[in-house]
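It would be a great kindness if you could assist me with a short task in structural biology. The matter concerns a single protein, recorded as an amino acid sequence and a row of backbone structure tokens. Kindly check, if you would, that the fold set down in the tokens agrees with what the sequence suggests. Thank you for your consideration; the sequence and its tokens are set out here:
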Amino acid sequence: MDLRDQWNRLLPHAQPLGDDLLARYAEQQRHYHDQRHLTEMLEAIDKLADLADDADTVRLAAWFHDAIYEPTAEPGENEEVSAQLAELELSAYGVPAEQVEEVGRLIRLTAKHDCDPDDANGAVLCDADLRILSLPADRYDEYAVGIREEYGHIGDRDFARGRMTFLQGLAGTALYATSRGHENWEAAARENVDRELTTWAPKAARPISGLIPMIYLGAALGVIVAASVLLGRGLGAAAHWPAAPNKVTGFPVWAPIAGTAVAAALVCAWFRRGQPRLVAIPALALVATGVVAIGVCWWRWPAAQPGAAMSERWPYLMLASVALVLAGALLALARRLRLAPPYALAPPRALGFGVALVCASLLAWIVVSAGEPFVQARLETANTVSTTTTIPPGVLPVRLDGELAWSREVPATGAIAGTAGGVAELRSDGVVMSDATTGQIRWRYSRADVDGAASNGSRGLLVSGDGRTLAAHLPYAGNRAPSGIELPTYAVLNAETGKVLTEVHTDGTALAVDGNQLLVAEGKYVVAHGVSNPTHWRTRLQCTVTQGELLADQARGGRRLR
């Protein structure tokens, strides 16, 4: 039965309208959306007719769905004006209003083919409109050529990108809405779509643009490996300091091995281009795991406890959690770029793998290295208690009556010094400044991760010549220093207010201090660390330095010859 007979059977009293529609489908600008497409669509509706609520209404919608077709129109514009034409003409020929309304709705559905699951009429019409996708390869190729001819006013690259975007949008979900269409046509349609996507990719992409997704993939893999290293550092650390030897398990080797295995699995999934979900699902899993882990770290973040110092465990675990979220986001972005037409042309596998490997190595090193300052800052903040004062120190008048003003036991012989701010006492965990007049504590500086500082005696406290600056030696003592983290071993303080002027990490011995520099002997080197300014210098001597003195801008040292 030809098209005219089919129309006359559908609406016998509207033969002029049928002639007008056939003339429309024969317009010169149509190379695919023509009478052949209409015939194939009606044949598909016949195969699915029993699945529709009203097959004749679906057929009417098919006749009108491309009645007005202009390739230069905006997306959805052809479907809208075709629906308006159908509503106008069918009403004029006495078709019931409810059926006219349904025809208009169905035509508008073909703009995006996004019918609801319970829309039987819409599912049949959309499946019929997309029936071309599952036809034999030679017919599908004719359809693809016809579409290109209809959009001849668009350049090859722009058309290739637009066409790929359209096909990828279709392929992102099930192509057919009816159970019969999905069962009988889905596989063939996907094979045709994938084949056409392959042909357009070289025309849509810029030269070497396919490396861009590989860079993001490599970054994601590097962050995953870095997260596993950070996780290992966190799990290998004690929960707090000081810790019994059996509580320090050491770095778990399985953590980076597991991270590397996950990265390798993602690389394998990436190169299976026909399975994009193999990358999308891990990206979502990484983000979800990272978000949950951040919440756990936030909830379990240890509060300050007397006699216990925060270890590097929780800062490292927090970093690993954030890294997982970042890795998931980078992986999702890499997948998104790979599906985008400008980046769809895959580079040679060896080149892509090499770029991903370099980026992964670089990002892993950057994330791990950048994490160490974060952990250091968190440990210093959590384990340091520093109070200051703005009240000037009291002045004790000279009395010669032998009466005791005040007394206090000091932790070790010589662990006390007079300053412009009062009497400085070096205790096991820091420095306490007492008012020389009353003995009341004016300010204190203590570190929970330091124990036994007072055992250094007089060597643990250095006071500047004017008494306004002091340096306290804060060794780790029995505590284990965190791996890769350089916590300060000297604190330079304003003797009058208790303000922290600077904190310095050094394995050497401080020789002298003033408001500008901390002079440190490190073997045969003398190093000046800036205090109130960034001045920092280092010089090598021919002997080991044991004593030093700062005079204005010069340093004078006492030397012990070897």
Remarks:
- The chain has 15 helices and 17 strands.
- Residues 74 and 133 are 23 Å apart (CA to CA).
- The two ends are 113 Å apart (CA to CA).
- Residues 558-562 have pLDDT under 50 and may be disordered.
